[in-house]
C-alpha cells in the first residue's frame, strides 16, 4: 500500500469515526451524546440533554452553560408533584467521583435554552459551551433530533 493510500484510509476512518462519535472528554469528565429536540416555529425555548460521567477520583461541578443558539442557557431541574410539573434553575450540578449525571427529558436535570435565536430543526447542530469548576471549559456540538427524540441519521438507517 502506498503512503498516499494509507493517508487516505486514515482520513476516511477519522471522518467516519467523528461522524458517529458524539462524545467528548475534558479532564476526568466524559460528556456523552449532547442533543436537543426540534421546536415548532414561534416556540421561545427548548431543552438540551446529555450525560456527564466523572471518571476521576475528585468531585467537580458543572457551573455554567452557554450557546449562541439562545439568548441564555440555564441548568434546570424538573420534577413532577402529582400532576404539576415543577421546573427551577439550579446554579450548578455536583459531579461526584465515579458517578454519572444523565440529563434526559421527563425528569431531572436538563439545559434550558431561553430565547431561541431560531427554531431548532431536526438534523441541525449548534455549539454549547459547558464550564466546569475544575476541568474548565469545553465546547460540544448538540445534534437536534425530531420531536420523538430520534436523529435524522437514526431514522434513515435500516
UniProtKB/TrEMBL annotation:
Coiled-coil regions, chain positions: none
Domain of life (superkingdom): Bacteria
Signal peptide bounds: 1-21
Keywords recorded for this protein, A-Z: Signal
Gene3D superfamilies xref list: PCu(A)C copper chaperone
This protein's name: Copper chaperone PCu(A)C
Source organism (scientific name): Collimonas pratensis
Amino acid at each position: 500500500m502506498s503512503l498516499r493510500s494509507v493517508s487516505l484510509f486514515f482520513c476516511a476512518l477519522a471522518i467516519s469515526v467523528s461522524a458517529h462519535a458524539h462524545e467528548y472528554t475534558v479532564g476526568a469528565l466524559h460528556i456523552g451524546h449532547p442533543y436537543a429536540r426540534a421546536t415548532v416555529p414561534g416556540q421561545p425555548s427548548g431543552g438540551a440533554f446529555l450525560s456527564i460521567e466523572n471518571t476521576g477520583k475528585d468531585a467537580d461541578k458543572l457551573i455554567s452553560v452557554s450557546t449562541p443558539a439562545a439568548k441564555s442557557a440555564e441548568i434546570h431541574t424538573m420534577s413532577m408533584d402529582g400532576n404539576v410539573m415543577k421546573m427551577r434553575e439550579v446554579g450548578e450540578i455536583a459531579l461526584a467521583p465515579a458517578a454519572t449525571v444523565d440529563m434526559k427529558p421527563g425528569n431531572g436535570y436538563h439545559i434550558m435554552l431561553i430565547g431561541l435565536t431560531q427554531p431548532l430543526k431536526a438534523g441541525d447542530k449548534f455549539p454549547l459551551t459547558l464550564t466546569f469548576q475544575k476541568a474548565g471549559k469545553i465546547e460540544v456540538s448538540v445534534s437536534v433530533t425530531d420531536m420523538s427524540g430520534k436523529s435524522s441519521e437514526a431514522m434513515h438507517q435500516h
